[in-house]
Design brief:
Elements lengths: L2 H18 L1 H7 L42 H5 L8 H14 L2 H13 L1 H5 L4 H13 L4 H9 L10 H44 L2 H13 L1
Helix pairs in contact: 1-2, 1-5, 1-9, 4-5, 4-8, 5-8
């Protein structure tokens, strides 16, 4: 799985957390205004402004900062994240049921650590809490039970649901990338036009007169 693919999957996971565990989402994604897939507003392209300083670039991903420590969950399929016994059990299920297992297990990890997440008051502490949660899951049976239990479990998440949300996320990311590229091209064009205008102004009779007066004074 590529880094771009893991970002798509993390967006799908954040949607699932927002829907199934609102209290957890309030802690890890409260600054995202409720929707991790919502695109950032893009400045209009018709009248681009010249980019003079290091302005923040347009982002196509609105993911909570906490996902930075969760990228390895999907890229390595929990290798090095869960204890080896639990990892082997997860891989057995992945081979049998497919990639939807990644999301089920990730949701189960958050469900088992929900009380700990809700008790965090310092946003910086949240990173260490999320990183430590999977490492504590030494009991593979407890992890599987939390994942597949009928009540408050995640066995109902189907592969079709995951694939549909993945495709929606990919389309949004691609659209945002295209809009960002269009905006960047318009800004470059505006910069080139302004530079060309400066050159033309220096070559006019008024520009030569100013240069002549400067030479006389010196």
């Amino acid at each position: 799985m590529s880094l771009e693919g893991s970002k798509v999957d993390l967006g799908v996971l954040m949607n699932a957390i927002r829907e199934s565990m609102p209290a957890v989402w309030a802690k890890i994604g409260d600054d995202m205004e409720g929707d991790p897939n919502a695109a950032r507003p893009v400045k209009p392209v018709k009248k681009p402004r010249v980019r003079r300083k290091n302005q923040p670039s347009i982002s196509s991903n609105r993911l909570p900062p906490i996902t930075l420590c969760m990228t390895a969950w999907f890229m390595s399929c929990f290798i090095g994240t869960l204890p080896i016994e639990s990892t082997l059990r997860v891989w057995d299920v992945i081979f049998y049921e497919g990639s939807k297992t990644l999301f089920r297990i990730a949701l189960a990890i958050f469900k088992l650590g929900e009380n700990e997440v809700r008790s965090v008051t310092d946003p910086m502490e949240m990173f260490s809490v999320i990183q430590a949660m999977p490492r504590k899951l030494l009991d593979a049976n407890a992890l599987m039970e939390a994942c597949f239990k009928r009540r408050n479990g995640f066995g109902h998440i189907s592969q079709d649901t995951i694939d549909t949300q993945r495709e929606e996320r990919r389309v949004k990311v691609q659209t945002e990338h295209q809009r960002a590229a269009t905006y960047a091209g318009a800004v470059d064009s505006a910069n080139a036009t302004e530079a060309e205008g400066e050159v033309r102004r220096k070559g006019t009779i008024f520009g030569r007169r100013r240069l002549g007066r400067s030479a006389e004074v010196s």
